[in-house]
Amino acid sequence: MSQRLHHVHIHRAPGMGISAMELASNHSFPRHSHDEYGIGVVLSGAQRSWSGVGLVESFPGDVITVNPGEIHDGHPVDGAARRWRIIYFDPEVLCRQFTPDVPQEIEFVSPSLTDHALGHCVNLLFNRLLEHADLLGIEEMVAHVVQRLIPHEARPAGHARTYSVPVTKARARIDDDPSNPVTLAELAALSGTSRYQIVRAFSRELGTTPYAYVIQRRVRLARELLMNGETLAAAAQLAGFADQSHMTRAFARQFGVSPGRYVAAGA
After folding, report:
1. Which residue of 116, 193, 205, 240 has the fewest C-beta atoms within 10 A of its own C-beta?
2. Order of strands, edge to edge, in the sheet holding 47-51?
C-alpha cells in the first residue's frame, strides 16, 4: 500500500471573492460540491474524476473546471500523487465584475480540457495571488482567464441540467436547512415516492446518496459559519454535526484541509 501524501497550501483574496489552493496528494476526494466556480490546472500526475458529463481524466497542463453546486469527485490515477492548482471564484463577484455582458450566470461545460495556453494563464493568475500583486494585475489576469474560457467552454446557466421532481424537492428541503435532521421518509413524502425510490433517484441523477448530500451541505454551512467568526465547536453544533471531530473529518475529506487551517489562511 502506498504511503499517504497530502500537502495543501491556501491563499485567499477575501475582498475579491477569490481563494486559491495548491495541492500535492494521492488522496481520493469523495463526491461533493462547492459554492463557487473553480478553474484550475494540473501540474503533474493525473486525476480521474466523476462529473455531470461522466468520467474524465486530466493530465499535466490540462485545465479543470467546476460549477457552483456541481457534484464531482477526484481520484489519483493508479494511486500516484498528482499536483494541481485551483482557484475558486465567488459566483456573484465573478458574474458582476467580469462577465456583465453575459445575460445569465455562466456554466462551464467541460470539467477537463486540453488548452495549455489557458493553463499557463491560470498559473500566472495563481502566481499573482501568491505574490500579493497589485489589484490591477490580479483583476486583469482574472478577466483574461474568464474571457478566454467563456467563448468555448461556457453556456448560459439557463441551459443547465434539470432534475426530477423528487430530487428537486428533496434537495430544496436539505439546502433550506442542512443542520435540521431529516429522514428518508420525509424526503420521499415530499413528492409521494418511496424511500427506495428517493435513494435511487439521488444516485442516478446526482451520483451520491441523500445522506452524503446532507453532509456536503453541512460542511459548506460550517465553512460559512467559521468564516463569519464562529469557533470550531460552535460551527459544528450550528451546522448539525454530532461534535467538532465529526465536522473536522467531513471538512477535511471535502476540502482536503482541516477547518482550522482553512480559516487561518484567511486571517
Report:
1. 116
2. 29-32, 72-76, 47-51, 54-58
- The CATH number of 6-159 is 2.60.120.10
Grid-cell match 448530500, residue found: 213
How confident is the model over 158-211, as pLDDT tens digits?
555 688 999 999 999 999 999 999 999 999 999 999 999 999 999 888 888 999
Hey, where are the domains in the chain?
A: 6-159, 165-264
Per CATH, which fold does 165-264 belong to?
Answer: Arc Repressor Mutant, subunit A (1.10.10)
Supply angle C-alpha 233, 238, 243, rounded to 5. Answer: 45
pLDDT at 88: 93
pLDDT tens, position by position, 70-99: 889 999 998 889 999 999 998 888 777 776
- Are 103 and 156 a contacting pair, CB within 8 Å? yes
Helix orientation angle between 244-255 and 210-227, rounded to the nearest 10 degrees: 100
What are phi and psi for residue 30, nearest 5 degrees? Answer: -70, 170
Looking at this protein, which amino acid is placed at residue 259? P
7: Cβ–Cβ under 8 A, 6 or more apart, which residues?
A: 23, 24, 25
